[in-house]
C-alpha cells in the first residue's frame, strides 16, 4: 500500500477492501484510514459469510446498512450517557 502526504494536510493511501484496491484521500492519519478500511473489509467478509450468494453491490449496501445501524446505536448510547452526566452537574 502506497501512502504519501498531499498539500492542504491531506494524505493519500491505497487500501484493500474485499479484494479491491482503493485510493483514499483524507485529512486523517494513514493509520486511521487503514483502520477504517480494515473494519469495512471485516464487516463485508462477516456479512458474506452469512449470505454467500450476495453480489458485490448488495453486499456493499448491506455492509453500509449494518455499519450505520451500529453507529446509531452507539450515538444513542453516547447521548444517553451525556444526558446522565449533565444531570449530575
TrEMBL record:
<keyword id="KW-0131">Cell cycle</keyword>
<dbReference type="GO" id="GO:0000921">
    <property type="term" value="P:septin ring assembly"/>
</dbReference>
<dbReference type="GO" id="GO:0032153">
    <property type="term" value="C:cell division site"/>
</dbReference>
<dbReference type="Pfam" id="PF05164">
    <property type="entry name" value="ZapA"/>
</dbReference>
<keyword id="KW-0717">Septation</keyword>
<keyword id="KW-0132">Cell division</keyword>
<dbReference type="GO" id="GO:0005829">
    <property type="term" value="C:cytosol"/>
</dbReference>
<dbReference type="InterPro" id="IPR036192">
    <property type="entry name" value="Cell_div_ZapA-like_sf"/>
</dbReference>
<dbReference type="GO" id="GO:0043093">
    <property type="term" value="P:FtsZ-dependent cytokinesis"/>
</dbReference>
<protein>
    <recommendedName>
        <fullName>Cell division protein ZapA</fullName>
    </recommendedName>
</protein>
<comment type="subunit">
    <text>Homodimer. Interacts with FtsZ.</text>
</comment>
<dbReference type="InterPro" id="IPR053712">
    <property type="entry name" value="Bac_CellDiv_Activator"/>
</dbReference>
<comment type="function">
    <text>Activator of cell division through the inhibition of FtsZ GTPase activity, therefore promoting FtsZ assembly into bundles of protofilaments necessary for the formation of the division Z ring. It is recruited early at mid-cell but it is not essential for cell division.</text>
</comment>
<dbReference type="GO" id="GO:0030428">
    <property type="term" value="C:cell septum"/>
</dbReference>
<keyword id="KW-0963">Cytoplasm</keyword>
<dbReference type="InterPro" id="IPR007838">
    <property type="entry name" value="Cell_div_ZapA-like"/>
</dbReference>
<dbReference type="GO" id="GO:0000917">
    <property type="term" value="P:division septum assembly"/>
</dbReference>
Amino acid at each position: 500500500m502506497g501512502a504519501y502526504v498531499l498539500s492542504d494536510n491531506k494524505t493519500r493511501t491505497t487500501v484493500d477492501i474485499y479484494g479491491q484496491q482503493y485510493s483514499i484521500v483524507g485529512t486523517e492519519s494513514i493509520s486511521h484510514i487503514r483502520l477504517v478500511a480494515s473494519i469495512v473489509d471485516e464487516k463485508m467478509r462477516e456479512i458474506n459469510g452469512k449470505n454467500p450468494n450476495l453480489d458485490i453491490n448488495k453486499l456493499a449496501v448491506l455492509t453500509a446498512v449494518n455499519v450505520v445501524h451500529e453507529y446509531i446505536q452507539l450515538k444513542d448510547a453516547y447521548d444517553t450517557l451525556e444526558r446522565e452526566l449533565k444531570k449530575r452537574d
